[in-house]
Amino acid sequence: MSGEKQACLTVCLTMRKVLQPLFFAILSAVLAACSNADGIGLHDTQDLGRLVRLTGEVSAGDVTVILQAGEELTATGPVVAPEGKNLIIRGIPGAPAHIVLGEGGFVASGSIVIENAVIDAATIGTPLIALSAQPSAEALNGTDYYDIPTVTLRNVTVRGLRHELLSDSGEKYCVQRLTVDNSHIGLAADGTARNGDGNMQNAGNTPLPALFNLSSGGAKELLLTATTVDGNGAQMTDVVAYHPAARLDRYGFDTATDRQSIVVEGCLFTAFSVAGKWINAKSMTANSFTNITMSGNSWVQCKRPAIARH
Hints:
single chain, alpha/beta, 14-stranded parallel β-sheet, 7-stranded parallel β-sheet, 21 strands, 36% strand
């Protein structure tokens, strides 16, 4: 090899040695600023609302945010899922992320799943989860109900909740499967919010609204399992509230093959009172396609009413 070629080869090898680490550093930075379908990346911010928005911008499908073990995040405003997209926020089992909400909770027009997280809701003036007040027309399921396939809280601790755990924002939603599993819902004793009819109650201690406030629509299945609801002396109007006309067949399901159900199993309810009804769901009364199951639950320092459906 000539001296000129040898010199050229030496220069090329030297440049490769210098540039290769730089290339991978740039590639790593790009990957850290992007997200794939598994929700990887985008942790250049600890603002959960911004994290969801950025993930939605680069995700063609579900908006999936994977939280790191023990991660601390805040949200200065509502955490809004992109319109028509499902939102999945998933922490690490055994090492939940800590989310401090500011002025609002989570807003979704599609499914929403939150797993393995501790959520501080003490300062929000809204429900923890609000289905969008401007639902997508694409969600209409052939009836006049907007379809939400799934709303799930699993392995979640909520602290200081003053409003609904879930609200339909006055729109006719059908939540096909509403699940709260292995969670701890802590209510605030000084809750100020709407009741199940959307009215303010200002006399005396202001009751919380229905914990599950679907007073304009309803759910096909509600599963509340292995969960503690710690009232901290709070009052609520209803625990579950559906619109009187919300019924399985009106959601568009076949009553010969499908069922509408509420299942409450293995739960602990402490230190709260109910001014109205435990289950305010007239549409589920005396129908062969409805079923309410309550088993293995405990009530401690809870006042009125008897467990009944109305």
